[in-house]
Amino acid sequence: TKKPHTPGPWIIKPYAYRKHGQSYTHPASVAAMDGHWIANNICGHDLQGSSMANARLIAAAPSLLEAATEVLTDISTGYIAQDSHRAETNRSKLEAKLTAALKTIKS
Fold first, then answer.
1. How far is it, in rounded angstroms, from Cα 82 to Cα 15?
2. In contact, 66 and 37? CB cutoff 8 Å
3. DSSP-assigned letters across all residues of 52-99
4. pLDDT of residue 11
5. Which of 34, 74, 77, 90 sits a CA distance of 20 to 30 A from 22?
6. Contact 28, 44 (CB under 8 A)
7. Is the Cα dihedral 18, 8, 27, 55 positive or negative?
8. Which pLDDT belongs to residue 43?
C-alpha cells in the first residue's frame, strides 16, 4: 500500500540549518503549511534562474495533481462534454485551480 503524499498547499520558504558550527540557508526550499519539509536542499542558491523556478514547480505539484485528477474524472464521466450548468460550474472550478497552479509556477 502506497502512502499518500504530504497534503498541499506547499509553499516556498527558506530552510536554515547548522553544519559543523556554520549556519546555512537554502532560500528556495519547499514546505507544507504544517512546516513539514518537502524539498529543503535540492534547489540551491540560483534565485534568478532554475532554482527558484524548480521550487515554484515543486510547490505547485499538489494543486496540479488535484486539478489533473478532477479533469480526468470529469472527462471520464462526461461532465466536460455536456452542455449543462453543472458542466460549466466544473469547467470554471477547474480553470480557477489550473490558473492558480500556473500562477504559482510562473510567479
1. 47
2. no
3. HHHHHHHHHHHHHHHHHHHHHHHHHHTTTTS-SHHHHHHHHHHHHHHH
4. 93
5. 34
6. yes
7. positive
8. 56
